[in-house]
Design brief:
By secondary structure, this protein is of the alpha/beta class. It has 14 helices and 13 strands. Helix 10 packs across helix 11.
């Protein structure tokens, strides 16, 4: 068993609520083959994955303890420090044994929600279990995959940092992080929320484009340093939970989950089912992304008509986070905010599904229009756009296709060529970065 997978829930979520809400992290740990590793009474039980319940979660009365109330070295409930230890502070031996505080019952859930209390314990517990499995139990762990959302996504980064301290590059890490939010100023002041060391081979981060709460600043390229990691951030429309729970727009969650499945399987996690299997092709992904293009308000045919919503279907207009504005979006996506691409995964899917049309529209240095016909070298693309309204209408809305009086379509040569070249684009040639499950 060379691959071990760690699932980190966000604030307020846990192994019960995550599954009941059909949230991404809960879905994956309920579809991970094998059994979960355990820590009880100081004894570690062998398993292929681990679940970290989120700080301030709501299932305390349903058999799931708040993480800050559990000793990360033994798995037992914490006991209160003696008055002497409170005054003199815990010793090194106390810290090594996880005896750094008591149950802290007063406002424990509130402190978990506000400050993330409990994520230190989740980080320590995870690395403690991995050490025991590898060195004491002989479990051949060569790769650790980490999946998390919100504060849980940042917990994945913190675990990878601690693993670097313990194992250096002996264990390879891969991270799938959905809208990593540390909360308050932790994302600016804590080094292990910002740095990916050389033990992290691959990092894919989903960034919610429209989450505007001031305390929900994401760990994006303005904060994260990853000099030795194949790292990419994918902007995705919607607010903070739109990528993990199917809502509005639904494609943000369905694309994210199917992509996560493909990546985890490529990284060695035994996922037992395929979420949203209808998206398991580059063409299907391209159509889903086309619906997202139509859901945004950046082009004249779909801009906000009134406070009630857009012409494109009544979705309430949303402001964008700082990273997704004109001045910064081109750090993440070829062409920036006004381009056709939602993110670099979108561009890679379209290029794979329609290579000839992609080259003609987005890479050609020619000019003028070509009429799309069933007998041209663009026959596959012709059939796709004629048979699929979202794909056709999204390209029309961006001025990449044009209608004619006789009902046919014209394709603009070089109409979508964007000048900026990204340092971090989707690595399509890598077996570890599939486009879908």
């Amino acid at each position: 068993m060379s691959v071990f997978t760690v699932y980190c829930h966000g604030t307020g979520f846990d192994r019960i609520k995550g599954v009941e809400s059909n949230e991404l992290v809960g879905w994956f740990h309920s579809h991970n083959g094998g059994v979960e590793a355990s820590l009880t009474g100081g004894a570690v039980g062998i398993g292929g994955y681990l679940i970290n319940d989120g700080p301030g979660h709501s299932s305390e009365g349903r058999g799931v303890d708040l993480p800050q109330q559990v000793n990360p070295m033994t798995g037992n409930a914490k006991t209160n420090l003696s008055l002497k230890k409170v005054v003199t502070r815990p010793t090194f031996a106390d810290h090594a044994a996880g005896k750094t505080g008591g149950q802290q019952k007063v406002a424990a859930k509130l402190r978990g929600n506000i400050s993330g209390q409990g994520w230190d314990e989740n980080t320590q517990r995870t690395v403690n279990i991995i050490q025991d499995l590898k060195f004491d139990k002989g479990q051949a762990i060569a790769t650790v995959n980490l999946v998390g959302w919100s504060r849980g996504a940042v917990t994945c980064m913190r675990i990878a940092n601690l693993m670097y301290e313990v194992f250096k590059t002996e264990i390879e890490c891969n991270i799938f992080a959905v809208d990593p939010v540390a909360g308050a100023d932790a994302g600016k002041k804590m080094d292990d929320t910002q740095v990916l060391h050389s033990n992290v081979a691959r990092y894919v981060g989903i960034l919610a484009m429209h989450e505007m709460r001031s305390t929900f600043k994401p760990q994006d390229w303005s904060r994260v340093k990853a000099p030795a990691t194949k790292c990419i951030f994918l902007p995705m429309p919607g607010v903070h939970n739109a990528q993990v729970i199917v809502g509005n727009p639904p494609e943000s969650a369905t694309i994210t989950r199917n992509l996560a499945c493909g990546l985890l399987q490529a990284w060695g996690t035994p996922v037992t089912d395929t979420p949203f299997a209808d998206l398991s092709s580059p063409r299907a992904m391209s159509v889903a992304y086309a619906r997202l293009v139509l859901s945004l308000s950046e082009h004249k045919d779909y801009e906000t008509e009134s406070f009630k919503g857009r012409k494109g279907g009544g979705t309430i207009s949303l402001r964008r986070r700082d990273f997704a504005t004109h001045s910064k979006m081109d750090t993440y996506t070829r062409g920036g905010k006004e381009s056709y691409w939602i993110n670099e995964h979108h561009r890679a899917c379209f290029a794979e599904a329609f290579p000839d049309a992609y080259d003609a529209i987005f890479e050609s240095r020619g000019s003028g229009d070509i009429k799309l016909t069933a007998s041209s070298r663009f026959a596959t693309f012709f059939q796709a756009v004629h048979g699929n309204a979202p794909l056709r209408n999204s390209l029309l809305a961006k001025g990449l296709l044009a209608g004619t009086g006789d009902g046919s379509l014209l394709m603009g040569l070089g109409a979508g060529r964007y000048s900026n070249q990204l340092n971090r684009s989707w690595p399509v040639s890598s077996q570890y970065f599939p486009l879908h499950a």
